[in-house]
Design a protein that fits this description.
It comes from Botryosphaeria parva (strain UCR-NP2). This protein is mostly beta strands. 8% of the residues lie in helices and 52% in strands. The protein has 1 helix and 11 strands, in the order αβββββββββββ. Strands 1, 2, 3, 8, 9 and 10 form a 6-stranded antiparallel beta sheet that branches. Strands 4-5-6-7-11 form a 5-stranded antiparallel beta sheet, with helices on one face. A hairpin with a 2-residue loop joins strand 8 and strand 9. The longest helix is centred in the N-terminal third of the chain and has 12 residues, at 4-15.
Length: 145
């Protein structure tokens, strides 16, 4: 597992008696954010990368509903949500106790960023996309290595 980076950061922070902070970690990355909207539903897809934990996954969901929280396709540790007009997204990466090599270790981080949403089409059907590369600065981090 590529959790070494976070474990090293957290262990180093603990060694100097300082708690880990968001500024010590790299931003989450979202690439290829796209929406397809019809009168009956909205589909969303993007690629996600957390360089701190090594997670790389594709995220796709349909239908996307206002206020919904969604899990990425092949990784239950990554959850995401959008604000009402989908101009902002939030992502959380969570490894609860017992899911890492050390049963007492855990990692929780979340970030939020603007999507730079642009759309083409009519109100009956739109194709939308976000910025080509979205960097979600980590707002909160918790962890024990």
């Amino acid at each position: 597992m590529q959790f070494t980076t976070v474990a090293t950061i957290l262990a180093g922070a603990a060694a100097v008696a300082a708690a880990p902070t968001p500024s010590t970690l790299q931003s989450f990355n979202v690439e290829g954010l796209k929406w397809s909207t019809t009168p009956s539903q909205t589909q969303v897809s993007f690629d996600f990368n957390d360089p701190n934990s090594g997670i790389k996954t594709n995220c796709y969901w349909s239908p996307v509903l206002i206020g919904g929280v969604y899990t990425c396709n092949n990784n239950d540790n990554v959850k995401y949500a959008f604000n009402d007009d989908m101009t902002q997204m939030s992502v959380a990466v969570t490894f609860p106790k017992g899911t890492l090599d050390d049963s007492d270790a855990y990692y929780i981080a979340n970030g939020t960023a603007a999507t730079a949403k642009t759309c083409q089409g009519t109100t009956a059907g739109q194709d939308c996309q976000g910025a080509p590369h979205i960097f979600l600065t980590i707002n909160e981090i918790q962890g024990v290595a």
